[in-house]
Structures are given as structure tokens and as C-alpha cells.
Amino acid sequence: MKFAVCINHVPDTATKVHVGPDGKSIEKTGVNYVISPYDEYAVEAALRFKEKQSGEVIVLSWGGDAHKESLRKALAMGVDKAVLLKDDSTRDSFGVARALADYLRELAPDVILFGKQSVDYDDSAVGIMVAEMLGLPSAAVVVSMEITGGTAKADREIEGGHEVVEVQLPAVFTIQKGAYEPRYPSLKGIMAAKGKPIEERQPAPMEAKVETITMVKPPAKQAGKIVGTDVGAVPELVRLLHEEAKVI
Amino acid sequence: MKIIAFAEQRDNKFKKPAFEVVKAARRVADQTGGEVVAVVVGSGVRSIAPELGGYGAHKVVVVEDARLALYSSTAYATIVAGVAKTQAANVVLLPATAMGKDLAPRIAVKLDAGLAADCTALTVDQGDILATRPVYAGKALTEIRVKSPVKVFSLRPNVFTAGTSSGGTAPVEVVEVPLTEQDFRSIVKEVKQSSAKLDVAEADIIVTGGRGLKGPENFAMIEELAATLGGAVGASRAVVDAGWRPHDEQVGQTGKTVSPSLYIAVAVSGAIQHLAGMSSSKYIVAVNRDKDAPIFQVASYGIVADAFEIIPALSAEVKKLLGKQ
Ligand SMILES: Cc1cc2nc3c(=O)[nH]c(=O)nc-3n(C[C@H](O)[C@H](O)[C@H](O)COP(=O)(O)OP(=O)(O)OC[C@H]3O[C@@H](n4cnc5c(N)ncnc54)[C@H](O)[C@@H]3O)c2cc1C
Ligand SMILES: Nc1ncnc2c1ncn2[C@@H]1O[C@H](COP(=O)(O)O)[C@@H](O)[C@H]1O
């Protein structure tokens, strides 16, 4: 079985975000980039399926040369092949999805995995857009799944519960934190990854459908008041919540 | 401007975000001289459709099929995009719920439209819609414009106010959208809903416990306070990773982003990833014995003390106020 995993290269979650000089994107200096956390779960899921029933795992990323760092990490985790769809333009989820879909159409994997969202723009869009572009069914926000023959059964998170979705392969899945805690690359994996090539492709240019006009920091929260330092403060807190904030 | 508002229902009841989306659509329509067509998809949903008029829908289009009783991403997308086309809509609004987030990207592709996901505000500027959307888990806000002729927006639940129904009703049109086997290659087999449990993403009051609670058994007092307030229980990642609480309760950058009216953080330090998920809450209360804990920097009200003393007393005091004891 052929598995493809699409990964994004994003600022780590500890990043203190500052707006950059263009006023439309973040200041990139001093920022540490990683595989988007959910995409790492997706890589892990693919590796586990491969280990269980054999096959091949191909990892893709759309972006500039910097994305090679995350592709290399995925190789070190054990994926077989890495492809960079090289493009330095500003991201637009539709355009990224189009580029990924064009390559995936050629690759024709049985299972295509995404993270449930990139932790930079938080769109939760690219994976499902790719599914639609390829005319494939999908299950989103999946915490665990099983593959039997040509069908997958996925457990997906919804408000206050779960849905069990049955999907015919080939199909797209977007992975949520759950059953696939990512492995650490072994030293052997890291060494082996150094020798593996990263294939580069030039995706067809696409006009962005969405334009960022400005980026700003949200208004800073003012630290409020310390109501007290012992249990005696409780009635006053309740009074404030009731009379001042009017939330209870 | 012709606006399609997808009115999400489950078990033939509208979810609150359905009303929020219809109302938001109406506000935009009023500013642009447009019309709101609400769309309801399901099985046996005809009877609930008129009530969307009370939130501003000019008309409701209903698509029914026994196979649509449970959600199907492919079939629902075919229907909503199909209705958008026959109505010649230029804008489609959906809630950014589990269902809406799954549908919006498919609909955008079907309509060759740009998508603005998880928006927290829509404003009208010279006849065009500008959307505000948080990025980096709310550490920054962007203002964006969708440039394609048809535009899709998903709206974050709990942010756009629905208010109460005006009591009015809207005319209902039942339409057929042809569906094929292809539309049912992904189907929900089962919904495991714990109806008793309120989800943090939908709650207006959240009480979150952190690692300072020392063990899962001590969440009993968090549950009690949440129940007393009619709210949901939330958890920090440290608590989820330790296996004390399920992941669907996690609040933060890799959990859920929430913006309730009241967020009570108990023995939570307030790490940057946690703050990212909850700092847009209207009022934040922090209970922590460390006065330097970062959570106090975003808290409207704080108590610097031992949670084990404060929380039971707080539950009792709230019960007293609400006359529950
Ligand atoms: C990639 C990544 C993603 C992450 N995503 C998230 C996320 O989505 N959500 C999230 O929450 N975290 C996330 N984190 C983890 C985050 O960095 C913190 O580790 C976590 O939030 C800490 O949880 P905590 O506040 O419960 O525990 P701690 O930081 O251990 O804090 C416990 C607090 O309890 C207080 N305390 C102890 N005893 C008492 C007592 N008796 N009474 C009162 N107070 C007491 C202490 O003073 C302390 O402030 C992420 C981290 C990474 C690397
Ligand atoms: N530049 C990219 N290259 C490869 N995959 C991506 C890229 N951006 C997003 N993805 C994938 O699409 C998922 C959803 O991303 P997003 O729509 O940006 O939230 C991510 O979790 C990745 O799996």
C-alpha cells in the first residue's frame, strides 16, 4: 500500500509572535521552525500502517528550501521518500492544495494523510481541499483508524463525542492528536536520512484567492486584580463575577 | 449580495452556531442590500426549517434524504455547493464547527472560491466583506479579503451573537439535489455522543484544571464547580498527557481554542500554548498558589492560594448565590 503524508514547516508553538516589517506576516528572525505537530502524528500513523502491512511512505511539503529541514526529520523517522514542491510565494491554502493535488494525482497513493491543521495559519483547509480536488472521500480530525482491505474505519472527534466514519480507499485523512504519539528519530535513522535525496518539483504557479491586508497583535489583556490570598476572598470573587462581570 | 447560510443541525435540532451564522449573514445582507438563503440538510428536517426566519433568513432551502440523517462530508458538500450554484450565491457562510470545518474546504473547491476559515469578525467595506481571523492560535490577528467571485467564510462558534429569535418564520422551499453512490464513499456509521457532557468548544463557562491538582481524583471538585455553574470541564495539556483527562477537554494551541464568557483556570500555570487557546475569553479567573504564575497576567480576577481550599468554598458560594442549596 502506498501512503503519502503532507507536512508543513511552521514556527514552534513556544514562539512569541511579533508582526514583521511588511505588517502582514510575522517577524521570522529568531523563530524556530518544526514539523507542524499534527503533521507529525500523521507521519507516525503512516509509519505504523506501513510496519503492519508493508508498503511505502512518501512525504511532501510545499514551500521554500527551509522546508527541507522538516522533510529530513520525517526521513529520519523512517519515511521512504521526501518531495519538496518548491515555491517561495506567500501561502494560500487553495494554491498549496492545488500544488499538492497535482503531484498526488501522479503518485496515486491509497492513503493520503494530513495534520488536522497547521499551527501557523490554523486554516484546517488544505487536506480536505486536496480530497475534493482529487475527487476522493475523506475523514477529518481523526484520532485513530484501521485499514482493512479497501476500506478504512476512522474515529473522528466532534463536539462532545466521536463519529465512526467508514471510508472507501483511496481516501484522505486529517489526523488529530490521539493514537499516534510520534517516535523520536533513532541515531541510525538520522544518519540514513542524511544520505537520502529530497526530490524537488516546481509546482505550476497559482493566483492566490485570499489576500492578507494586515496582521496585528491582539489587544493585550490587562492583568486584573488579585482578589485575595485565602479562602476569605471567595465571597468577594463571587460578588464580582455576579455584579461587575455579570457572568454568573 | 446573495448569501447562503449553512444551518447545522444534529438529531433534527439546530445547533446554536446555526443561528449565529444566519444572523451574521443577515447583518452582512442588510449592509449590502442582499438576501439570506439558509440551507438545512438532513432527514425529516422540514419542520424545523421555518424557525430560521426568526434569526433573519429570508428563505430556507431544505434538502432531505433518508441517507442524510447522519453526516457525510461528500454528500453534504455536493448539496450545499449545488444549492449555492442554483441560487447564484456569491457568499457561503458556515459555522467553524467539526461539521462546518469539514465542509467549507470542499465547498470552496467546488465553487472555485477562496476560503476564510474560523473568522471572528466580518465587516463590510465598500460592498466587499473583510474578515478578521486569528492566526498562530490567536497570538496575532489578520484582516483578510477573499478575491475570488464566490467567497466562503466559516465563523468561529460563540463569537457572533445570535440573540434570541424574533419569532418570525421564513418561507421554506424543499429542493432535490441529485446524489450518486460517489457521494456516499464516506459515511458516518455511528455517533458516540455523551449527551450529558458539554464540550469546551461550545460552553459559555469553562472550569479548567491543571497539573497542580496532583491527580485525576481531584478533578471531582472541578467537575462539581463546572456543574454548579452549568459549564464544561477543561484541561491543560499536562493533565491530558498524564492521562488524567481525555484529549477532547484540552484547551490550548494543540487543543481547543475557546472564548467563553467565563474561564476559570485552577492550578494551571498559563504556559504560552495554553494562553493561546483561551486568552480571548471575556472574563478569566485564576486560582494558583504561585503569585508569579503567568496565568495572572491575563486574569481579570485572581486568587493566590491553595486550590484545594478555594474550589470547594467557591462551589458552595456559587450554590448559595444561585439558590441551589
Ligand atoms: C508543541 C506543544 C504544544 C502544546 N500545546 C498545549 C496546549 O494546547 N494546551 C496546554 O495547556 N498546554 C500545551 N502545551 C504544554 C505547555 O507548554 C505546558 O507544559 C502546560 O500547559 C502546563 O500545564 P499546567 O499548567 O497544568 O502544569 P504546570 O505548568 O505544571 O503548572 C501547574 C500550576 O499549578 C500550580 N499549583 C500547584 N499546586 C497548586 C495548588 N495546590 N493550588 C493552586 N495552584 C497550584 C503551580 O503553581 C503551577 O502554576 C504544549 C507544549 C508544546 C511543546
Ligand atoms: N505547505 C504545506 N506543505 C505540505 N502540506 C501542507 C502545507 N500546508 C498545510 N499542509 C497540510 O495540510 C494540513 C492542514 O493545513 P492548514 O489548512 O494550513 O491548516 C496540514 O496539517 C498539513 O498536513
Blueprint of the fold:
The complex is a heterodimer of chains A (248) and B (325).
Chain A: E1 2-6, E2 9-11, E3 33-35, H1 37-53, E4 56-63, H2 68-77, E5 81-86, H3 93-107, E6 111-115, H4 126-134, E7 138-148, E8 151-158, E9 161-168, E10 171-175, H5 187-195, E11 198-201, E12 210-216, E13 225-228, H6 234-244
Helix pairs in contact in A: 2-5, 3-4
Chain B: E1 2-6, E2 9-10, E3 13-14, H1 16-32, E4 35-42, E5 59-64, H2 73-86, E6 91-95, H3 98-110, E7 114-119, E8 121-125, E9 128-135, E10 140-146, E11 151-155, E12 172-174, E13 186-193, E14 205-209, H4 219-229, E15 232-235, H5 237-241, E16 262-266, H6 272-278, E17 283-288, E18 301-304, H7 307-322
Parallel strand pairs in B: 1-4, 1-6, 4-5, 5-12, 6-11, 7-11, 14-15, 14-16, 16-17, 17-18
Antiparallel strand pairs in B: 2-3, 8-9, 9-10
Characterization of this structure:
Chain A has helices at residues 37-53, 68-77, 93-107, 126-134, 187-195, 234-244, and strands at residues 2-6, 9-11, 33-35, 56-63, 81-86, 111-115, 138-148, 151-158, 161-168, 171-175, 198-201, 210-216, 225-228. Chain A has 248 residues and is of the alpha/beta class. Chain A has one domain (2-201): 3-Layer(aba) Sandwich (Rossmann fold). Chain A has a nine-stranded mixed beta sheet with strand order 9-8-7-10-6-1-4-5-11, sandwiched between helices. In chain A, strands 2-3 form a two-stranded antiparallel sheet. In chain A, a hairpin with a 2-residue loop joins strand 8 and strand 9. The N and C termini of chain A lie far apart (55 Å). Chain B is an alpha/beta fold. Chain B folds into two domains: 2-184, HUPs (Rossmann fold); 205-322, TPP-binding domain (Rossmann fold), CATH 3.40.50.1220. Chain B has helices at 16-32, 73-86, 98-110, 219-229, 237-241, 272-278, 307-322, and strands spanning 2-6, 9-10, 13-14, 35-42, 59-64, 91-95, 114-119, 121-125, 128-135, 140-146, 151-155, 172-174, 186-193, 205-209, 232-235, 262-266, 283-288, 301-304. In chain B, helix 2 crosses helix 3. Chain B starts with a strand and ends with a helix. In chain B, 61% of the residues are buried. Classes of the chains: A alpha/beta (248), B alpha/beta (325). At the A-B interface, helix 3, helix 4, strand 7, strand 8 and strand 9 of A face helix 2, helix 3, strand 7, strand 9 and strand 10 of B. The structure holds flavin-adenine dinucleotide and adenosine monophosphate. Flavin-adenine dinucleotide is lined by residues 210-212, 236-239, 250-255, 267-269, 271, 273-274, 277, 287-290, 293, 306-308 of chain B.
